[in-house]
Design brief:
The protein has five helices and 15 strands. By secondary structure, it is of the alpha+beta class. It has two domains: about 150 residues, Gcn5-related N-acetyltransferase (GNAT) (Aminopeptidase), CATH 3.40.630; about 100 residues, Lipocalin (Beta Barrel). Strand 3 and strand 4 form a beta hairpin.
């Protein structure tokens, strides 16, 4: 799995991802006039302009583009994953990536939420700030919301020792849930933790902490089926308004189906 900046040679791939997703998924939620509006709004010329501005990124699996996201200052735009790859955590990986890029410079993140994605954004802490409707062809209406999430950048170095986290959002292929509790420990730049609850009987992780608080670690646990699962994860901290931490994680199983996923953990 790789996320890279898009070049003009990717224009056709990005357009195909956008159009196939809109035509396949959005037609389940919107009337024809609204779907055609989306297609027009994300036309090839607009995508090309954003690529030239170096705002477009592509998610690849084994060198095959399967998803894309556009980042304009503190706004996340045009986040799409091909329908056949949805439900496998790739959308969350792209969203985590975009949030991490924005959080390096800004204290808030904004996006336009379509009907298929609004519930996902609500679970990730976004709040609706405006609602809009657009009259399209055939008298059809397009409804969407503008949503925002605040990111508070801490000037102090994060120490995870003694902190407890519980999952808030998970990909479908995750084996942790709101009943799983993570107890973190830290000495210098070494991090380790125990976790258990839900489907997990007992688990451990060990890794490192960078100067900006980003965690890189490997984890292993035994689930209720008696299976030992192993994986790797990168976890990026966000400081909330109340001073608590929220960890945005991108992970991959190293055994079993070796699928990727994303999670958000919140400090208790």
């Amino acid at each position: 799995m790789n996320i890279r900046s898009a070049s003009l040679t990717d224009l056709g791939f990005v357009k195909d991802i956008v159009y196939e997703t809109i035509q396949t998924i959005y037609s389940r939620y919107y009337p024809k006039g609204a779907v055609n509006f989306f297609l027009s709004h994300h036309c090839e010329a607009n995508i090309e302009t954003d690529i030239i501005s170096q705002n477009v990124f592509v998610l690849e699996i084994e060198a095959v583009p399967i998803g894309t996201v556009t980042i304009k200052e503190f706004e996340i735009c045009r986040l799409f994953v091909l329908p056949q790859y949805q439900g496998k955590g790739y959308g969350g990986v792209l969203l985590n990536f975009a949030e991490r890029v924005i959080a390096n410079k800004y204290t808030k993140i904004r996006l336009d939420a379509s009907l298929p994605a609004k519930e996902i954004y609500l679970r990730r802490g976004y709040k609706e700030i405006e609602s809009h409707s657009i009259l399209t062809e055939n008298g059809d209406y397009l409804f969407y919301d503008i949503m925002e999430k605040s990111i508070f950048i801490s000037n102090s170095k994060i120490n995870y020792n003694g902190k407890i986290f519980i999952p808030k959002v998970n990909s479908e292929n995750s084996e942790v849930d709101e009943e799983t509790m993570f107890q973190y420990h830290q000495s210098s730049n070494i991090l380790w933790a125990e976790y258990a609850g839900g489907e997990v009987i007992r688990g451990h992780l060990i890794g490192t902490v960078s100067d900006n608080g980003v965690l890189d670690f490997h984890y292993q646990h035994m689930n209720e089926k008696g299976q030992i699962r192993i994986g790797q994860c990168r976890s990026t901290p966000h400081v909330l308004e109340n001073g608590k931490l929220e960890l945005h994680e991108e992970w991959q199983w190293l055994n079993g189906d070796k699928s990727v996923g994303s999670s958000i953990l919140i400090e208790r």
